[in-house]
Amino acid sequence: MDPIFQKPYNPNEHEETIYAEWEKNGAFAPQGNGTPFTILMPPPNANGNLHVGHALGTTLQDIMIRYRRMAGYKTLWLPGADHAGFETQVVYEKKLEKEGRTRFGMKREDLYKEILAFTLENKANMESQVRSLGASCDWSREKFTLDPEIIAVVYDTFRALFNDGLIYRGKRIVNWCTKHQTSLSDLETASQTQTDTLYYLQYGPLVVATVRPETMFGDVAVAVHPDDARYTQFIGTTITAQTPIGIMELRVIADPMVDPEFGTGALKITPAHDANDFDFGMRHQLPMPEVIDQYGKLNEKTGKYAGMKIDEARTAIANDLREHGLLVKEEPYEHTISTCYKCNKTLEPRILPQWFVKMRPLADRALEAVEKGEVRIIPEYSAKVFNKWLTDIRDWNISRQIAWGIPIPAKICTSCDFGSGDQSLTSCPSCNSDLIDDPDTFDTWFSSGQWPFATLGYPESDDYRTFYPTSVMETAYDILFFWVARMVMLGLYRTGKAPFHTVYLHGLVRDPSKQKMSKSKGNVINPLTVMQEFGTDALRLALIIGNTPGTDLALSLDKVRGYKHFANKLWNIARFVLERFDEAPIKEKPQLVESDATHLKELSALSKEVTEDIEQFRFHLAGEKLYHYVWHSFADKMIEECKLRFKNGSDEDAVSARYTLVVTLTTVLKLLHPFTPFVTETIWKKISPSVRKLGGDAHSLLITATWPYSHH
Questions:
Q1: Which of 445, 435, 455, 457 is nearest to 406 (CA)?
Q2: What is the number of alpha carbons within 13 Å of residue 220 lying toward its C-beta?
């Protein structure tokens, strides 16, 4: 027996060597002519280290792939990395701040080059971390969202959508971050509840209630409900309102969107600075003067308040209104505001010309795909959430005013806001001005929403024909809308097929007291540190066992430590079995005693159950059953019985026991391999070919051995 078993299992001595051997032997590439089974790795952002959520997703995907590979499928797990547009630029801006620099004032191409170098360095680092998690993905097919062939597909999609009338350039209200100086889609906004002052302002004969007196200089109307008897006499008239800088004339307009219960039931309408007011202004064809600039300061239309920041102006204007007797009353008001999801600053609605995707036709086809079962979502209740979001969807702003990302391949006119996806145009058909290349970049979700067909070489490649649609998209539930829904919509649009058959959503990984992990709380569990201390297999088991789809997992180091003991238990079991075999080797299956026949029957039943659990995405149950079987049935029961049998039993009994132990060990190693690839492969390599053959499988590598149970 190999002398390595004379000391406890030390993961750090084996993991790197084992992974290198898998790669050297081409074990990750698709093999054979079986049914294709494809997973595309959700491309981690190439802007920092992997976190424990990545470790969970990678483990789940690796379990599926390793199982299917051993079960004879032609498996492809395609790895990748995301340039992550806005997110990466924000990370890089923080780096610039620490260096006493800012992106403002930098040449756009210089900033791009710096972020590219930063991203590529992080990408290499991130890939080594994915390897250390045991990911058996095909690195020869790895893709990056900025690869030329990916960009070419993204550009083709943009042109197709434009030609089909599903992309348009429109001057509409968008979410604007005054810190990052870019618009954001509705999904990139966070919301928070806060208490502000509700101001009641005297507008001529009427009183309006607002939390934003500073926008009054952009008011164009007062809105009331058509059935509100208090205002019947004013509907359709024009009133005169005094402000601290002059007189305003405002139409009183009836509209059912007004809530008569809010404030006085009369609302000031500022179309350029409120999304609801913008919709109101569009319905009633109102002017839309802007009074707050891109930096969140009042502009020249606001007289003496010009140049003031919003909060400063709000206080100054309220004081002046109070002084002029125009502030009727004030009261606290709790409401929800939209903030930038990266810097938490309140977003300022602005009217800007941007590129929008018409979502309704795309969303309807995606809803149909889920309804017809073309796409199955696990857990099932997430399908309702998916359907609700797609039912209520608004057009998607895909323009970003940042340097880092894929440039939008379009021509625009700065004089009249015209835009065209036809890049051969040189002059504007509306005003005859010269057209320029659009300086904006795509929302990163527009490119990553095309990941399934773009990475597989749509439309001509063998990989696309073989592996699309893919089998499973495994990702976190919090990007169901950001990413999964958009992949379904764009995949159906470009290829006519849903991009994957099944969506498996995992929950977030939280700390032991179920708190969200954050650097500020100091409760972040770093997977790399944990793997160094306890081994990758221990972390993988801790992430899987007890973790049901779509629910958050509380992870503690004690749990990981427990599974390190389990890996060592398996090591000790292997040592015992191999020592007994070396004492008296056997070459073929003997006549089994009744208890051993029963043990092997139980093992066969376990193989069937574990297979069905994996097939049905019950990974937590499969892992738990294997853990209990190895620890309690195999170690505590069988091995303890065998010790007595070797001591006191007949020769025939000892031969039967040896054979049963060998078959159980080799079968258990196979069943455990998708969950704990390193310790199982390390043991397998140390088992002699004759022992492996006796156990029913002569493969030299466990990763490509045959799964012990077949449905077929």
A1: 445
A2: 18
Residues 316/326, Cβ–Cβ less than 8 Å: no
Say how far apart CA 149 and CA 78 lie, in whole Å: 15
Amino acid 391 reads: T
H or E element that contains 387 = helix 381-391
Q: What is the DSSP letter of 302?
A: G
CA distance 15 to 442: 40
The pair phi, psi for residue 626, each rounded to 5°, is -65, -40
Residue pLDDT, tens place only, 186-234: 878 889 999 999 999 999 999 999 999 999 999 999 999 999 999 999 9
| Nearest in space to 672 (alpha carbons), one of 569, 588, 598 | 569
Give the chain's domains with CATH numbers: 12-138+451-522 (3.40.50.620), 159-171+350-442 (2.170.220.10), 183-348 (3.90.740.10), 551-704 (1.10.730.10)
Q: Are strands 419-420 and 436-437 parallel, antiparallel or unpaired?
A: unpaired
Q: What pLDDT, in 10s, does the model give residues 423-454?
A: 899 999 999 999 999 999 999 999 999 999 99
**CA 709 to CA 667: how far, in whole Å?**
10
Using DSSP bridges, classify how beta strands 411-412 and 436-437 pair: parallel, antiparallel or unpaired.
antiparallel
**pLDDT tens, residue by residue, 358-396:** 999 999 999 999 999 999 999 999 999 999 999 999 999
Quote the percentage of the chain above a pLDDT of 90: 91
Token pair 């880092």: residue = 404
Nearest residue to 634 (alpha-carbon basis) of 712, 574, 557: 574
Looking at residue 712, its pLDDT comes to: 58
Please say if the pLDDT value at position 2 is more than 90. Answer: no
Distance (Å, whole) CA 664 – CA 699: 16
- How does the average pLDDT of the chain come out, rounded? 95
Residue 518 has pLDDT above 80, yes or no: no
Query: Given phi > 0 = left and psi -120 to 50 = alpha, else beta, which region is 280?
Result: alpha
**Which residue from 362, 364, 382, 361 is spatially nearest to 372, judged by alpha carbons?**
364
Neighbouring residues of 51: CB distance < 8 A, sequence distance ≥ 6: 517, 524, 526, 527
Cis before 469? omega within 30? yes
CA-wise closest residue to 353 among 287, 397, 288, 404: 397
- State residue 8 phi and psi, 5-degree precision: -60, 160
State the CB neighbour count (10 A cutoff) for residue 529: 11
Partners of 470 in beta bridges:
500
User: 697, 579, 712: which is closest to 646 by C-alpha?
Assistant: 579
Structure tokens at 276: 């609801």
Ramachandran region, residue 285 (left: φ > 0; alpha: ψ -120 to 50; beta: rest): left
Q: Which residues, including other chains, have CB under 8 Å from residue 58's CB and lie 6 or more apart?
A: 41, 50, 130, 133, 134, 135
Strand 80-81 and strand 143-144: the pairing is: parallel
441 forms beta bridges with 400, 407
